[in-house]
Amino acid sequence: MFIQTEDTPNPDALKFNPNTRVLPENLSSPFLEYLTPRSTLAPPHPSPLAAKLLNVDGVTSVFFGADYVTVSKDSATPWAHVKPEVFSIINEFFLSGQQIVNTVEDKAGESGQGGTEQDSLAYDENDSEVVGMIKELLETRIRPAIQEDGGDIEFRGFHDGQVLLKLRGACRTCDSSTVTLKNGIESMLMHYIEEVQGVQQIMDQEEEIAMKEFAKFEEKLRHQKGPDAAPSTIGKGSLDTVEG
Asked: I need a surface site. Which of 94, 109, 117, 168 has the fewest CB within 10 A?
C-alpha cells in the first residue's frame, strides 16, 4: 500500500494520504477530529486508529478528512521522533482492513469528537439569503484550499456583520495558515457580500484555556531568551478569536 505524506502550512502537522476512503460513506460530517485519548473511545464515533495515534509521544490531535489523515504534534517534539511510528501505525491499520471509525449510540449526548454533527456548510432552507451566500462561497471557494492543507472549516453563525468560523485539523493552531485564511476568507466574503464586515474564529472552551496556558508559557520563554526571541508556530495568529 502506498501512503503519501504531505507537509502543511503548519510545521507541527502532517497530512497522510492513504489513497483510499478514510471516513465512512454514510457519515454526514465531512470530517472527525480527536483531541484527547478519551475522545477516541467516546460515542458516537470512537476510532481505534485515532486511539493508537494519540498514544504516540508528542502527538496532540488526529483529524480524519474524507480521504486523508492529519496528525498534529507539540512543537517540542521533532518529526524525526514521531513520523516513523505514525506512518507505521497508519500503514498497518489500512493494510489490516480494520474499521477506522466505529459508530455507537450516543445515549448520554457526550459527542466526544469534533465534527460529529451535520455538515455546517450544508444547505438549510431556514437560512437567510446572506447566510446561504456565505455558505456557498465557503463551500466552493474556501473549503477546498483548507482541505488541501489538511484541515476543514465550520460555519458557526453570522451576527452583526461578523462571520463566525471554526478552523479544524492542521489549520486549527497554525499562525501562517490563519493569517492567510483571515485575509483570504474575510476579503473574499466582504468583496462578494456587502453585509459581511469581518470574520472571527470561534474557540471552544478547552482550546481557549490551552491557548492562554501556552501564551503564559511563551511569555516565560521570551523573558528567558530575551525580547528578540522568535514567537512559536502555535498561537492565535491574526485571526480574531472568540469563545465558543
From this structure: 109
Q: What is the mean pLDDT of each run of 10 residues along the chain (244 residues)?
A: 89 94 88 92 92 96 95 95 97 93 73 64 88 93 87 90 87 63 83 93 62 62 65 43 47
**CA-wise closest residue to 58 among 27, 38, 31, 86:** 86
Residue 234: DSSP 8-state: B
Beta bridge partners of 125: none
Q: Where are the alpha helices (DSSP H) in the chain?
A: 48-54, 79-96, 129-137, 143-148, 175-192, 205-225
pTM flag (> 0.90): no
pLDDT at 242: 47
DSSP 8-state assignment for residue 111: -
Contact 39/55 with Cβ under 8 angstroms?
no
Q: What is the DSSP string of 131-171?
A: HHHHHHHIIIIIHHHHHHTTEEEEEEEEETTEEEEEEEEGG
Beta bridge partners of 5: 16
pLDDT confidence of residue 235: 41
- Which residues lie closer than 8 Å to 96 by C-beta, 6 or more apart? none
**Chain-centre distance for alpha carbon 53:** 16
